[in-house]
Design brief:
single chain; 151 residues; mainly alpha; 2 domains; 5 helices; 0% strand; flat
Length: 151
């Protein structure tokens, strides 16, 4: 993408040439030979000493400092408790839990459906309870759709 009529690469090259030219003038005072040295800034590199270790023990012995690995099996989590609505799968009990009453407006019906879904959606329960939650949501959606048609 051109920046001020030049590509980014050309702009960088111009910057290197300007720096080199300023350095050349300093070098030309000392010597009459022009030298072009593009500068690479590497101040982000850390001082490292490769091959040196504070502890001279063989690498295999260094793991002894951490002790023995645990031999017991990790505790399995307790199964989640069943939801309170697990035995309420009939249409009348889902309708009562949904809380629809005659004369509700369309926004009120949608809000009731949203609140019911937040508490009963299959994605929000443990895997072993998803079939029951799917049944409840199916019934609740059907009841809410009927209420929306009547409203």
């Amino acid at each position: 993408m051109p920046v001020f009529g030049k590509t980014l690469f050309e702009t960088v090259l111009d910057g290197i040439e300007v720096e080199a030219t300023e350095e050349d003038e300093d070098d030309q005072d000392d010597q009459d030979i022009p030298v072009r040295r593009p500068r690479i800034v590497a101040h982000f590199l850390a001082d490292t000493s490769y091959g040196e270790r504070a502890d001279e023990r063989p690498l295999g012995e260094l793991y002894e400092d951490f002790g023995e690995p645990p031999t017991s099996e990790p505790d399995t989590p307790a199964p989640p408790p069943p939801p309170v609505w697990l035995d309420r799968l009939s249409e009348s009990s889902v309708g009562a839990d949904l809380g629809l009453v005659a004369g509700m407006s369309r926004p009120e019906i949608r809000e009731k459906r949203r609140l019911f879904a937040r508490a009963n959606h299959p994605d929000g329960v443990a895997e072993q309870f998803r079939d029951a939650a799917t049944i409840r949501m199916t019934i609740a959606n059907r009841l809410a759709d009927e209420a929306l048609r009547r409203a």
